[in-house]
Fold this protein.
Amino acid sequence: MTTLTRREGLVLGAGSALAAMLPESVWAEPAPSLHALAQAKGMRFGSAIAANAGGGIVNSRYTALIKAECGLLVAENEMKWQALRPSPTHFDFTGADAIMDYAMRNGLALRGHNLLWNRPQWQPAWFKEYDFGVQQASEAAALLTTHINTVCARYQGRIKSYDVVNETVLPETGLLAETYLSKAMGSTEALVDLAFHTARAEAPDAQLVYNDYMSWEPGNETHRAGVLKFLEGLRQRGTPVDALGIQSHLIAQDARPQEREWRSFIDAVTGMGYALLITEFDVRDSALPKDFAKRDAGVAALGKAYLDMMFSYTQLRDVLVWGMADPFSWLQGFEPRKDGAPTRGCLLDDAYRAKPLRAAVAAAFEAAPKR
Ligand code: XIL
């Protein structure tokens, strides 16, 4: 369980300057859940969850943690095309349904991630060989609309927020990514617009989100500019998009985050009328020392600074982490540390103990203005 005694909290936080700054109440027993703290501000807190993995609904220790802390879930992989579409003609909802059923049974909301991940490496391998025929554009459109209609119809009334399009702006150029599907369609804009219009028609009450990983570290300038241009284009064309999902896979590094530039980016996004979500929060700690106390303090301080800034925007209501506990985090495989030590970018450690990052998230909710 997640409840933490005051003593455990102090021991875990020992040596960290951040722990000293945190209000004592976050360590009190029983700690208010993160979702409760979020709700007090008109916000929600949640996490990614898997179907058949350690960080999944099959692990009762993990689900105890999920039930204790979260009001909202998202499937880590189970609702992606690669999971749902083993072949062009076949849908497999096994994992997705298992997570949906779990969420319903436990009174948790579930976000849909995602209806179109417009990157070739994240689309099913069969796309490469797929025969789009002579009417390429209409075949591509049919594939996409069948997919979106089928998913939205299945979870009608149950999924109320979708990442309709994921990561279609290229960080290196700011231009839009091309895939077999977008090439057959004729343009990425046409494909993206069709995805949003189809989702709006089939799930009229759902929040429709563009989700991407542009962030505040130096080096994201082109990505941010590309996303702004993309969002402007959507508005100009009247494409129905409600919000920007900011993945928030933060990187702890020596170079300072570009706070001013990041604020102007968010100001520009909200200025166009988009709401905001934090969809996949975690912290990459490769550049931090191996020592746990130092590393955890660095991760927590960065997380707190980021969330404080983000929570100052009342357009932000939903905050999701990309997994609750270190051992099941995608970061272990995606960005292993050079020293071979396990990464510690989640709120809880391998023994399901809260780390200073959990306290930092709690403190950020406590400091957040009400929505
Ligand atoms: C990741 C999953 O965590 C991994 O298990 C999978 O191998 C690849 O995808 N941005 C996203 C998420 O939008 O869907 C990604 O999830 C992480 C980056």
Q: What stands out?
A: Residues 252 and 302 are 7 Å apart (CA to CA). Residues 1-30 have pLDDT under 50 and may be disordered.
